[in-house]
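JOB MANIFEST
job_type = single_chain_structure
chain_count = 1
residues = 235
[input]
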Amino acid sequence: MIKDIVVNLNVGTTASSASDFAISVAAAFDAHLTGIAFLHSPIIPVTGAGNVPAEVMVTQQDYQAAVATTQERFADASGRAGIKAELLTLSASLVSAGEQFGRIARRFDLAVVGQAEPKTNTVEGVIVEAALFDSGRPLIIVRYTQKAPLKLDRVMVCWDGGRAAARAVGDAMPLLQRAGRVEVVIIANEPGKQDQIEGADVGAHLARHGLNVEVKRIPLGDIDVADVLLSPCGR
């Protein structure tokens, strides 16, 4: 059951993608949502005279203003959605923000984080990694271009018979139970567990939960697994 969600509030041009998606998840499950805004301590160069360069001060002021705007947008959007939400602002360095978020996420049913924008050196990538490997809790990573809210008419389960896939299916069960259709996708030639019929066991398991399940086997071909799953045949 998902009743307590935490989201990292990204700051930047795509700041609302993760927070808006998290708000839609909270609304779907009537869950409480906590937004975490990190106020990063800058690494400040000092001149030989002991002065802080003026451009550094302006940059930090701009960042603080962007954080304030992100907080206001989160408060306004959660208020319009009618969900129970709170906002926490934490001070952290660029390094410690990920560690803090990973620890915080352990106390929630679900963490939502935004994908770092490509070719940018941002803290979002550090937070995604910490939430994935350090929290021990279910995680949704929201693509930086995401605009649509949560949709559960069709959900894909990527299955290779391994421990990570089994854990992901168990953690995702609250979402799967609301799905109109669940597609269990197995990539042919991908190493898996040989002591079971590929996909049949997990398909039967999900069907016993009352889910509408379809098992699909897709040939790997000459491209990697991630590209197959993101291709039209995978979707």
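[summary]
Residues 43-47, 52-58 have pLDDT under 50 and may be disordered.
The chain has two domains: 4-142, 155-230.
exit_status = 0
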